[in-house]
Amino acid sequence: MVNGVLTAEIFLPGATSLKEKRRTLKSLVEKLRGRFNVAVAEVEGQNAWQRATLAVAAVAGESIILHRLFEEVVNFIDGYRDAVLSDYQVDFYGVYLGREGDSGAKKVVSGGLVLVTGGARSGKSAYAESLLQDAPRAVFIATAVSTDAEMAARIAAHRSRRPASWETIEEPRDLAGAVRSVPTRVPVLVDCLGFWVNNLLAAGCTEEEVLKQATEFIGAVGAREGLTVAVTNEVGGGVVPPYPLGRLYRDLLGRVNQVVAHAAAAVYLLVCGIPVQLKP
């Protein structure tokens, strides 16, 4: 099980006394408890008239479920007429197990989806593999297709770096099907979404079809108990491609990355081999 806590900083512009503040907060807390089945308590700012800090706690079988729940809670508070959401923070317990010497990296040891993105040669694949380094068994889903000697050499280099106990599934297009074929508790590493989108476009898929398949991939991951790590490419930061297909690929991969990042429990950006945590 995964425990999560959403800490929300709230401003109450209409409160002119502690009594009025407590009445407003009581109404908000009761609505949150009844609507989302969560535990809610004021943890800071009890003596301030117009400010409060609420802690919203919940438990779920997967971190991705908690992330979606907290998104709904944030949206609800943000739209509440008597309160203004100033800031919030989400913490998961039982998801990350860090240790000294990880250079800021956090080892993911339970279920959910983690997205690792970065530019070319940023170290994203090696970092994604390190997240599963303690798993006794893992499945690597490779989306790249060997089209020439250079690509074959890259694939061989990646393969040689992985533990011998890992199983490899080569699937250039049916990513959701490949994920579903893996036992639900076995960790999965998908490398990478960039090649996958390229393969779908090469096969004649439309933008709508690619986005639909991305949604199917998210659904397949959400049905799993084990960890799923997906690697992608960060595009759009360089020169605009001079040809239409290149621009289509750039824009579409960017949209797919947004869909996956939205569903992910954690997102890391690799810069010069250093992981920068973007989410949560």
UniProtKB/TrEMBL annotation:
Q: In which pathway does it act?
A: Cofactor biosynthesis; adenosylcobalamin biosynthesis; adenosylcobalamin from cob(II)yrinate a,c-diamide: step 6/7; Cofactor biosynthesis; adenosylcobalamin biosynthesis; adenosylcobalamin from cob(II)yrinate a,c-diamide: step 5/7
Under Enzyme Commission nomenclature, its number is 2.7.1.156, 2.7.7.62
Substrates-to-products reaction catalysed: adenosylcob(III)inamide + GTP = adenosylcob(III)inamide phosphate + GDP + H(+); adenosylcob(III)inamide + ATP = adenosylcob(III)inamide phosphate + ADP + H(+); adenosylcob(III)inamide phosphate + GTP + H(+) = adenosylcob(III)inamide-GDP + diphosphate
Where does the chain cross the membrane?
none
Q: Which GO terms describe its biological process?
A: cobalamin biosynthetic process
Query: Highest taxon of the source?
Result: Bacteria
UniProt keyword annotation of Iron-sulfur present: no
The residue stretches assigned to a coiled coil in this entry are none
Q: Tell me the keywords, alphabetical order.
A: ATP-binding, Cobalamin biosynthesis, GTP-binding, Kinase, Nucleotide-binding, Nucleotidyltransferase, Transferase
Q: Which GO terms describe its molecular function?
A: adenosylcobinamide kinase activity; ATP binding; cobinamide phosphate guanylyltransferase activity; GTP binding
Q: Which CDD domains match?
A: CobU
Q: What class of enzyme is it?
A: transferase
Protein family according to the UniProt entry: Belongs to the CobU/CobP family.
Q: Write down the PANTHER family for this protein, in alphabetical order.
A: BIFUNCTIONAL ADENOSYLCOBALAMIN BIOSYNTHESIS PROTEIN COBU, PTHR34848
Alphabetized NCBIfam families for the sequence: PRK05800.1
This chain's function reads: Catalyzes ATP-dependent phosphorylation of adenosylcobinamide and addition of GMP to adenosylcobinamide phosphate.
- Protein name according to UniProt: Adenosylcobinamide kinase
Originating species: Thermodesulfitimonas autotrophica
